[in-house]
Amino acid sequence: MNTQPLDKEVALRIGLAVKELDAISTQEFLGLLIKIMGEPITPAKLDKLRAKKVKLLAGESLDAVSSETFERAFALLKGRGIRQFLNPKPELEQGVFCEIRGSVRIACSSNRGENIDGQFSDCMRFLIYQVSPDYIRLIDIREPSPKIKATERGAARAKLIEDCSMLYTISIGAAATAKVVKVGLHVMQLGKPLLAHVALRRLQAVLAQDSPPPWLVKAMGKPSLGVKLYGENS
CA within 20 to 30 Å of 74's CA: 50, 66, 118, 132, which one? Predict the structure, then answer.
């Protein structure tokens, strides 16, 4: 069967659905979808897909699949619950838990990997780094609760990272900035996506100066609120 290339999201949806079903091959399932909606298969077409039609045209192929399993697979096919697969978390560096002297703790608003590519108000997670003139270490990954009301989001997110000294983000509104500053963070708006290590290496150069800016000296002296870190024994 000759099929048009699938875009990344469509291929992911189909692959996850087939894995969940475990009763039909990817090729068979792809053929079924093409029979229903034609080519190309797009997210917009999948959004309009109906479960009854899939079951009807699948025939005996899905007879052994429970209704609960089919519902999970169909949800993935529709794109629900796939964000975590499209936006993977970076891996934490393993090490010994302790405080790191002469360093500063940074929160970075992120959606994918070790990128600073999210806005403060709606990023998927905050990557927490400990930075000194000698090293950059990812020590924690914090995900804001999706259940927080919009009116409370800024304060809740600021609370989540209040043990940090600085926030690196693509953008942040005035009201949210006030809440972040209130808990003691210095805000750095980048304006465009950047790899965290690129931004933090620039910070390292400032940390290494004989006389860092007063705001940075103040940030380096901020207490860690008792949070344990990955670091060197001291």
Answer: 118
